[in-house]
Amino acid sequence: MISIQVKQLTKQFGSIVALHGLDLTINPGELFFLLGPSGCGKTTLLRSLAGFYIPEKGQILFGDEDVTRLEPHKRNTGMMFQSYALWPHMTVAENVAFGLEERRVPAAEIRTRVGDALASVRMEKYADRKPNQLSGGQQQRVALARALVIRPRCLLLDEPLSNLDAKLRLEMRTEIRRVCKEFKLTTVYVTHDQKEALSIADRMAILESGHILQVGTPREVYKRPTRKTVANFIGETDFLPGKVLGMAGNYVTVETAVGKFDGIFGDTVNVPKVGDEVTVSIRPECWELHRDAESRNVVKGRIGQSIYLGEVAQYEFVTGNGTQLKIFERNPRFVDGAARGELYATVEPDDVVVLVG
Fold first, then answer.
1. What is the pTM of this model?
2. Does residue 351 register a pLDDT over 60?
3. Which residues contact 251 (CB under 8 A, 6 or more apart)?
């Protein structure tokens, strides 16, 4: 297992700066995700780690080794592309063996390592088939075996599940995490799929316009976003503009158009002052609905449109001044129109995240 360190990494394409002096440390054996909207720099960073792009400034370290300007084939990384890039004229076994043959590994060792790699992704029965005889999920497993067979120092995955249907994506999320942990691989995984990242990442970085906005565990990033951009990108949320009224201990009181809220700061370093303009972020599933008024963090209103999904109902909650909130009610009680009327939506202070801007 190795660590990966990125120090002040800058990459340009002509006059366009794709990465702005990034600093990032990925721990040995960690499954680390890079997320963000299209054009944020996540793929540029991944390809810089692979050696396909040479940065204008900064360093990339694999353990203690500076690989910033090392050729891709000398970095010993396993790369898995979105398209899988399997040779159509080769069998599964030949595809997996290709990297070893290029490295002039003895034939007997190639057979053993190919067999082990296919077994690790449960594809040993398909060794003699061609890629066009496989399903999308099976092709994805072959591409993963090909990346693993060279025994890489780290594994780099570029949106590997984007071509699969929803059911296969769910299956392969678990499979990729199992394989990465079984082989104790330091893994960097690029995706735009938030659920994919939240479900299997150890940690993640959210990027925007070539900058890293936040790094943390899935729970930290989801529950404690430090910026409005992060809260908006990861999951759904209600944003309410407000003004800081006061602070007491770890909590802050904010006045909004629908009432006062006690909450916590998402960014505990850049803390606003009393009177500053802020944004309150509340996840839809954090609201609770009641018939009687509560004493803290309460909004009065009525349910407008609703969508019933069995285990949860999604409501458009309309307040007295016309503000619309998203509320997700688990084990729905108020989805029946006859049981509605005036209701009170409440939220715990620890689920009210106050963001600067």
1. 0.87
2. yes
3. 262, 263, 264, 349
